[in-house]
């Protein structure tokens, strides 16, 4: 049923387009370019058959005529006018006397970057750097000491597992570490 409705809608649309094309084909436009309204035509015009427009009966549309002069003629005329205007504008011009200017020494246009200046007093800057170096050295020494402590302390559980005298504790630890997941 839905397919039938869809086909019916498509046929209606096609019929509408055919109707509008047919109506446009038989309506002749007025001078304005619009099709004549039905009330503007006389009853005789409505009933009289319209002749089919042919090349002989159809009025020719006027095309824009070609210019009487060619582009080259217009160009020559404009150039001659420009030459006459230039000749009239030319007046005898006195040559100015050359003015001697002193020769300037070449200078470098590059700017050297300014030297970085510290806003701190030199004594404070030295003191700050010295304290900073001391803090870095203390941190390095602390790191090395902790590293030595880690190496010196053996793992207690590893000793229990490898010691034959503590087999019972080793067995318990192995059961804890190898716990079965149910």
From TrEMBL:
<keyword id="KW-0472">Membrane</keyword>
<feature type="compositionally biased region" description="Low complexity">
    <location>
        <begin position="53"/>
        <end position="69"/>
    </location>
</feature>
<keyword id="KW-0812">Transmembrane</keyword>
<feature type="compositionally biased region" description="Basic and acidic residues">
    <location>
        <begin position="73"/>
        <end position="97"/>
    </location>
</feature>
<feature type="region of interest" description="Disordered">
    <location>
        <begin position="28"/>
        <end position="116"/>
    </location>
</feature>
<keyword id="KW-1133">Transmembrane helix</keyword>
<protein>
    <submittedName>
        <fullName>Uncharacterized protein</fullName>
    </submittedName>
</protein>
<feature type="transmembrane region" description="Helical">
    <location>
        <begin position="6"/>
        <end position="22"/>
    </location>
</feature>
């Amino acid at each position: 049923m839905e397919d039938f409705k869809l086909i019916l809608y498509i046929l209606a649309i096609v019929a509408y387009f055919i109707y509008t094309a047919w109506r446009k084909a038989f309506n002749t436009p007025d001078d304005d370019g619009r099709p004549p309204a039905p009330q503007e035509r006389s009853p005789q015009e409505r009933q009289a058959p319209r002749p089919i427009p042919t090349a002989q009966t159809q009025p020719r549309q006027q095309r824009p005529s070609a210019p009487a002069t060619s582009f080259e003629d217009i160009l020559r005329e404009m150039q001659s006018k420009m030459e006459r205007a230039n000749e009239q504008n030319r007046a005898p011009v006195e040559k100015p006397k050359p003015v001697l200017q002193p020769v300037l020494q070449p200078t470098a246009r590059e700017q050297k970057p300014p030297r970085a200046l510290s806003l701190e007093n030199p004594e404070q800057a030295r003191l700050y750097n010295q304290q900073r170096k001391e803090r870095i050295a203390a941190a390095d020494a602390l790191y090395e000491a902790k590293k030595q402590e880690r190496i010196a302390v053996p793992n207690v559980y590893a000793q229990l597992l490898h010691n034959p005298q503590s087999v019972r504790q080793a067995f318990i630890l192995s059961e804890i570490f190898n716990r079965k997941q149910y």
